[in-house]
Amino acid sequence: MSPTPASPRPARHDVGASAHLFAALGDPTRLRVLARLCRDGPTSIARLTVGSTVTRQAVAKHLRVLARVGLVRGRRRGRESVWELEPRRLELARRYLDLVSERWDETLERLKAAVER
Question: How many folded domains does the chain comprise?
Fold first, then answer.
């Protein structure tokens, strides 16, 4: 029986499918919203706008983009919508970044070996 890797590599077809995920993460406002959800847990749109110059409508728009790629999910609680992080999708992004980092490390090691010869 072969050992199971600690962090499975994303399948090749997943790389293309995740382009939308990284595009959603590429917006500074969406990153701030995601960071708030990571820090504060499930939060309403009203609370996400406190201390920000971004309107509730803009935050709602950004949350819908994040929801389309599976990074957050919303649910109704009374009259307000409460949004929370979807950690599995964020974990997928982390695995891709780990994979890229690993490949860069390997490439740099080969370059170093070639220069030192």
Answer: 1
Record the tokens describing residue 57, joined without a space: 């409508």
Closest CA to 95 of 5, 4, 3, 10: 10
* Single-letter code of the amino acid located at 11: A
Q: Is residue 87 part of a domain?
A: yes
Question: 95: domain range?
Answer: 16-116
Per-residue pLDDT of the chain (117 residues; tens, 9 = 90+): 434 444 445 555 466 667 888 889 899 999 999 999 999 999 999 999 988 899 999 999 999 999 999 999 999 988 889 999 998 888 888 888 888 788 777 887 888 888 888
Residue 2 included in any domain = no
Residue 3 lies in a domain: no
Angstrom distance (rounded) from CA 60 to CA 114: 52
**CATH (domain of 44):** 1.10.10.10
Model's pTM, two decimal places?
0.71
65 assigned to some structural domain = yes
Closest residue by Cα to residue 31 from 73, 90, 92: 90
